[in-house]
Design brief:
5-stranded antiparallel sheet; alpha+beta; globular
């Protein structure tokens, strides 16, 4: 039967949600237009739903009673002016969320109209304080009527990465094949409508390390296998020592009075990081420090399958670096609307002085859906608006650059083109990449008998001479220890390293001018082949590759796009950190596991920011405009990774197998599997400005001066 209209005034909710009920609400008959005539409907940008429907098997109509959450991201006002201010470095004072809404949010009148329109279909809606994100709840039938779409259920097939490991599990979802429609008088201010599918698109950015030789190991042929000297199984204190933060902490600045925010798509068990701090890292932290905020209903139960280990790592690392700071975890569903809403809620609440996120997808995946007319560029713009708000409010935002080196698309859609991750590609976040620490790494060569018994027959060893951009091209020549048949086969499964390169979605920000981001040097180990037209788009992408184990040095230029990452610190799992989670026991055989990935760096710098702000007594805000100035100065706190030296031969590779010495061909360089350093350059793709002396960086931030609150 036809549902009788009931007007839904929006109630006051959690901090960060504005109560529109306090506005003068007009009657339903007059809320849409003064003429009383409904405006004609026009298409508005949608999210992932049409793309998911296009590639999936329909299994029937979605029940009209299915509960849904849909978010309407609104176009801000005066955004060009805001972008210019943030790009140049916000000079303050920082805005409150209400002040931001007044200057850059949508008008109360427009928001009232949108909420009234949705309410006329029985949909309950509320707007966040920034007046840029209207979240709503209703049934599939209500949204079908309000947005002129039809929902069906689909079975989304599982996908694999290039090495055959699962990239995404099979999912049963609802979706619509078409973009939504809204009355013309509402459509013009819509950046994107998200939530028309419950598909989970994002991947966490942490990876476990490869097993190295344990001290005292022997080969079956006799003789002790050497033990590596490279650091591994490190605690957060190693980061503090390596990058000279210890003196700041010892001086008493440990995040007192500060709050850090973790934006994530998987739930965390608060007792797990608490155990890590006390019993693994042996760090004294403040009590009652962790607050969980369930965005859009939350991220579901704690589970490794959903990525809870990522959230656990983020909390463990940030909370260790700043032991006296509080932590708010924004747990959102792994959906297009969930991730966006989490950033908007963190900005609208404005309780955290710094935020970090360790999830992403390749720009190529976004390009695919845009080129197929299945998603609007408004989706990427939706993230940008949230980051601009954070910058205007003095919130520092760090996003991991990804772990597939220069070839980010290999991790999701499986193509071998150069590409960077999203949302780290935004010019309004600090993108964080990774390095490898120096030392020898030793890997066992094993043989498995017909009975399943595993015997160690020898080893292969690599010597990393200095801190380098993280790229696992140094592992490829040791293919015997990796269980591969050739170096090419090893490379196919290990295109791994610090995400970085050039965006195809965003232009280069002004702060990257004059530091070398306009050009680059490279070693092309991976030669893309088997190009195919990717239907239904005009994208022509490589689906295979051949390996050149000894490429020559080449150079290239950037056509004015955003370069990533901005900074890099140790992220290689082979020189990485120990993570604790009881769930690891079933999968890895131990509750403590060596991990790495750029997802460690974001939360670590989140903690660093809290330490800095407890020392300075005010927020630092968006790092990038200042750190690029610092890096270009005569007393830069950064160490750029500008070498393009080649390392090969017995000084860097050695080994023995079955009692015989091995001669290991191949080479490695200072690359993220493609981009290397350019001698004398301040900026180098793959590692950005490089790593910093964190004590010196604090001094530089202190010298900036502040009118900011």
């Amino acid at each position: 039967m036809k549902k009788r209209f009931t007007r839904h005034a929006v109630t006051l909710g959690a901090a960060g949600v504005l109560g529109i009920a306090t506005m003068a609400m007009t009657s339903p008959a007059t809320s849409l237009s003064a003429s009383q005539t409904p405006a004609p409907k026009v298409s508005v940008p949608g999210g992932l739903a049409p793309a998911i429907a296009a590639k999936s098997k329909p299994t029937g109509a979605t029940a009209g009673t299915t509960q849904m959450r849909v978010s309407f991201i609104l176009k801000g006002q005066n955004i060009a002016s805001l972008q210019s201010k943030v790009d140049a470095g916000w000079t303050g004072p920082y805005l409150t969320p209400m002040e931001f809404a007044q200057q850059y949010g949508q008008t109360p009148q427009y928001v009232q109209q949108l909420i009234s329109y949705l309410g006329s279909f029985g949909i309950h809606a509320q707007v966040m304080t920034d007046m840029l994100d209207v979240t709503s709840q209703g049934t599939a039938a209500q949204y079908q009527n309000a947005l002129s779409v039809l929902f069906d259920n689909y079975q989304v097939p599982a996908s694999s990465t290039i090495n055959g490991s699962p990239a995404a599990r099979m999912q049963q979802v609802f979706a619509t094949r078409h973009n939504p429609q809204l009355p013309a008088n509402l459509a013009g201010n819509i950046e994107a409508v998200l939530g028309l599918t419950n598909y989970a698109p994002y991947q966490s950015l942490s990876i476990p390390g490869k097993a190295q030789v344990t001290p005292g190991s022997t080969a079956a042929s006799g003789g002790t296998i050497p033990t590596g000297t490279a650091p591994s199984s490190q605690l957060p204190q190693a980061f503090e020592k390596q990058y000279n933060l210890t003196s700041v902490l010892n001086a008493g600045s440990q995040g007192q009075g500060q709050t850090m925010g973790i934006v994530t798509l998987a739930s965390v068990n608060p007792s797990v990081p608490a155990y890590f701090w006390k019993n693994v890292a042996h760090i004294a932290v403040i009590t009652h420090r962790l607050t969980l905020v369930n965005v859009d209903g939350g991220a579901g139960r704690v589970s490794l399958n959903s990525g809870s280990d990522e959230t656990t790592i983020d909390v463990e690392q940030s909370g260790s670096i700043a032991p006296q700071a509080k932590i708010v975890v924004y747990q959102a569903p792994n959906t297009d609307y969930g991730f966006v809403d989490a950033f908007y809620q963190a900005a609208s609440q404005n309780v955290a002085g710094s935020l970090s996120a360790s999830w992403g997808e390749s720009e190529t995946a976004i390009q695919y859906t845009v080129a197929a007319a299945q998603e609007s560029p408004g989706y990427a713009a939706a993230f940008n608006q949230a980051y601009l708000e954070s910058a205007a409010q003095g919130q520092s935002v760090f996003v991991s650059s990804g772990d597939q080196g220069a070839y980010d698309p290999t991790g999701d859609i499986g193509t071998y083109n150069l590409g960077v991750d999203s949302p780290e590609d935004s010019p309004y976040v600090t993108s964080v990449g990774g390095t490898t620490l120096p030392g020898t790494q030793v890997y066992p060569i094993t043989k498995t008998s017909s009975s399943g018994a595993v015997t160690t027959t020898g080893y292969e060893e690599v010597n990393i001479p200095t801190q380098l951009t993280w790229g696992w091209d140094y592992l490829w020549p040791m293919y015997k220890a990796l269980g591969a048949s050739s170096e090419s086969a090893a490379a196919g499964g290990l295109i791994v390293g610090s995400g970085g390169g050039y965006s195809v979605l965003f232009n280069g920000p002004s702060y990257q001018a004059g530091v070398g981001a306009s050009g680059y040097s490279d070693y092309q180990f991976i030669n893309p082949t088997s190009y195919q037209d990717i239907s239904p788009t005009n994208l022509y992408l490589p689906t295979s590759f051949t390996l050149n184990p000894t490429p020559g040095l080449s150079t290239g230029t950037n056509a004015g796009f955003r370069a990533t990452p901005d900074v890099a610190f140790n992220a290689d799992p082979q020189t990485g950190y120990v993570a604790y989670d009881p769930q690891f026991k079933k999968v890895f055989g131990s509750v403590n596991v060596d991990f790495g990935g750029t997802s460690f760096i974001g939360p670590q710098l989140n903690g660093v920011t809290a330490v800095y702000e407890s020392s300075l007594g005010h927020r630092i805000g968006f790092w990038n405009p200042n750190i690029y100035k610092f890096a270009a100065s005569s007393s830069s706190p950064f160490h750029p990774l500008d070498s393009n030296a080649v390392y090969s031969g017995s000084n860097y590779y050695s080994g023995r197998n079955n009692g015989h010495r091995l001669s290991i061909a191949g080479e490695f360089t200072n690359t993220n599997d493609y981009y290397t350093g350019t001698s004398g350059a301040i900026y180098n793709p793959g590692s950005g400005l490089g790593y910093a002396n964190l004590s010196k960086l604090l001094t530089d931030f202190a010298s900036v001066g502040s009118t900011q609150q």
